[in-house]
């Protein structure tokens, strides 16, 4: 028999979770690195010590109860009681004969097996649950400190949402991820589209780095309001191209229904349908709301601390492969932390139940440019209703194209990222050529009344300012000579300032002319279709809707 290999040496310069927990309990079996880590965790969450103390008190009562049932062997292995009084101390207060791990082990087995199985299971479950809870809270506090957000946190009135943006240009593309998905899963698409225009992606409330939502039921209307508040507070000016994936497609359509004047176009990638629960259940009840509720219950029943420990040991089958598929390598550890967090579970359960409750028809998209991306036909076998729902989504706009993937499934941004990038960039180019990016603010007969009151005030103030400058200089509006200096406060301004003012004047003149116009958002829709049809059909086989 070969001797066992010697255990690796302990690195006392790095904190250990068990020793940090023991330090929070007030014990002495820890080192300087563990104490420093405990102090940093307490700065993040002051109530952590109380949680540890409560866990320890509960386990003390559990040991006392078990000793009264006849258990005489106790080991301080992950029980949350390494400090004084230990598990053995609590047991000896009931049974003086208990002497600790080594000596009691010789006669404990027979006594323990005499307990009822239900009693042993209940005690073990209670101890494991409390230890798992404490471990999860400590690990999440460390993750928040280790993984700062890749974007910026924008305040929307007491809550902060996480926004990532790249590129320059207008209109801005706003990506709305799927159910409980975070920004890391779209970074590759954002980077590839940023060469064409400004591209943004965000974490909905409670997902990723965004703050949790207020109490109450989550609805697509609330999510659309959050997105509008985020874009305003983040300085992302309209018009917008919305790109919604899966459940994000519902949010995109609800955003358009509430704020039609700021949406220039839309891409729906494998979008969910507002009535899909009822329609799918009519064909197969197991795949309708019952499936969503079952998945929500399974996720809610997860013991997060145990799941996190299993992931650390590589025992979650397919978990590492899923992380590698979703996030760029530099963000893999952050994605793991998000997927294992309690906040992520809470958000996913809420959004699953939201989809399970939905029973309505999708709102019309009028005639805005629309591109619908659908999974490959061979991957829709057994899901005939899904193909019908996608066709209905493509018919929501009179200016739409329907793209069927060659090999991609529901997550097209992973299976066929080039298809998603080309669809977004092609729609932007198509609408730019047709002049949509300038006319989207008044699309479908939308008047100035559809815009925020403060926006109209800003326009009026800017127009008055320019009128005053024209009166001072004695020139007619729009007749400034290049490089002419304007006197705004008694001092001459530079040519750069004059150029900036002329740019504002030109924008206001365009706005003033557009508010008087009416008709289609994209004059010459046939030209827009032809422009879009010259790029994609040869590659993806587009069928006009």
Q: State the major sheet.
A: 9 strands, mixed
Strand order of the largest sheet: 1-2-4-3-5-6-7-8-9
What form results from the Cα inertia axes? Answer: elongated
**Tally of extended strands?**
9
The CATH superfamily of the largest domain appears as: Alpha/Beta hydrolase fold, catalytic domain
Provide the structure class: alpha/beta
Number of domains: 2
CATH class term of the largest domain: Alpha Beta
Give the integer mean of the pLDDT values.
74
Uncertain stretches of 5 or more adjacent residues:
99-114, 436-463, 472-545
Supply Rg.
30 Å
Fraction of residues in helices?
A: 40-55%
CATH fold-type name of the largest domain? Rossmann fold
Number of helices: 23
Our estimate of the beta-strand percent is 5-15%
The CATH architecture of the largest domain would be 3-Layer(aba) Sandwich
The CA-CA distance between the termini, in Å, is 73 Å
Overview features:
alpha/beta; 9-stranded mixed β-sheet; about 10% strand; about 550 residues; Rossmann fold
3D architecture notes:
The structure is a single chain. The chain is an alpha/beta fold and 545 residues long. The chain has 2 domains: 17-146, no CATH class; 152-441, Alpha/Beta hydrolase fold, catalytic domain (Rossmann fold), CATH 3.40.50. It is 51% helix and 8% strand. The chain has a 9-stranded mixed sheet, with helices on both faces. α8 (220-233) packs across α9 (247-258), α11 packs antiparallel against α15 (342-357) and α20 packs across α21.
